[in-house]
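Researcher: Please translate sequence to structure tokens.
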Amino acid sequence: MIIRKAILKDLKSIAEIFRIESSKQPYNKKRTPKRALNRIKEDFRGNDIYVAIVDNKIVGFVMVSVDSGIKNQLWINELWIFKEYQGQGIGKKLMAEIEKIYKNKGIKIFELVAHTAKGGAYEFYKKLRYRVDKTMVFMKKK
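Model: Translation complete:
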């Protein structure tokens, strides 16, 4: 597996992973290929994206951004892996690479939001020693 920073020609593959995987439970986000690509293109301007490549195919990505208000803090905005490649350590390796790269840049705090659905992202991040930050709460109004 190769992990590298994404380039412009990767965006279509990244958008397809994002579109397919975010349409599943518990997220249920339905996007057309065009809308997914537009979202990824927009995000590509202000974030860093790293891709995981297996057999010359992009199978996952992580998108991160340095918090503009706190210089030593990084937000993990998105992490998506094609379902058929999940459980093979790809997400873990992507996260380890991000942490290594940004620790070397002076980042001390890594933050993210994870869905609490059983067996999903929340459990994955707990295994990587991310903990719930009780100083903030995610709130919603419908």
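Researcher: Any highlights?
Model: The first helix runs from residue 11 to 22.
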